[in-house]
Design brief:
By secondary structure, the protein is an alpha+beta fold. Among the domains are: 30 residues; 102 residues, Alpha-Beta Plaits, CATH 3.30.70. The strands form 2 sheets. A 3-stranded antiparallel sheet has the order 2-3-5. Bound molecules: iron/sulfur cluster (2 copies). The site of one iron/sulfur cluster has 15 residues, from helix 2.
């Protein structure tokens, strides 16, 4: 009987201790927020999702080369000198390269931040966005270039024409140089004969 009363008392005591702990926590300062309605501020140096500002990117490919998981893909096209649309980078410098492809595969990115560290124009930055779960892996492959497919075709055509002209000019210069050289060689060959005739 005594054992039975002891067990009943122990049961009550356990509930009282549990309730005391629960009541104490009720009046403590809250450490959680009602996410997603409430959110803690993101620190400015947090390494979340990346964003590329295409108007700042000069196509140097430093980010692509330093990325440890090869998740950045950059393709560039030379800007031809007589391009009427010759663009300026937002920092005021002239752009030497178009950037028709600038892709990041966020399924591979490990958010090391090395790309943001090496970028000379601060074109690539971390954002405060940290929720980007999707149902499809394709949605994690983000294309940042602001060039339309039509514009890429147009700029490729301009470059091909410019390179063809450059090649033709080089070939013409080489032909003229060879012609000049053969004339000089011919003169050099004939001059000793002329000299010997004169001496006779
Ligand atoms: S954060 Fe790191 S892994 Fe992600 S794209 Fe930049 S360099 Fe590559
Ligand atoms: S994002 Fe920066 S580092 Fe990457 S290609 Fe553009 S300018 Fe270069």
């Amino acid at each position: 009987m005594i054992e039975y009363i002891k067990n009943v008392w122990l049961g009550f005591w356990t509930v009282i201790v549990g309730m005391r702990i629960t009541l104490a926590h009720l009046f403590e300062k809250k450490v959680t927020v009602q996410y997603p309605d409430d959110r803690y501020p993101i620190p400015p140096n947090a390494r979340n999702k990346l964003y590329l500002d295409p108007t700042l990117c000069n196509g140097c490919t430093s980010c692509e080369r330093i990325c440890p998981v090869n998740c950045i893909k950059v393709e560039t096209l030379r800007v031809v000198p007589d391009d009427p649309e010759r663009p300026m980078i937002a920092d005021g410098s002239k752009r030497k390269l178009w950037v028709p492809v600038y892709d990041i595969d966020f399924a591979k990115c490990c958010f090391c931040g090395l790309c943001t560290t090496v970028c000379p124009t601060f074109a690539i930055k971390h954002t405060v966005e940290f929720e980007y779960s999707t149902y499809s892996r394709d949605e994690l492959y983000v294309r940042f270039s602001d060039m339309s497919p039509e514009k890429i075709i147009e700029k490729k055509k301009m470059l091909d024409e410019f390179q063809a002209k450059e090649k033709a000019a080089k070939a013409e210069a080489a032909r003229k140089a060879a012609e000049e050289k053969s004339k000089t060689d011919a003169k050099a060959e004939t001059s000793p004969v002329t000299e010997s005739k004169e001496s006779n």
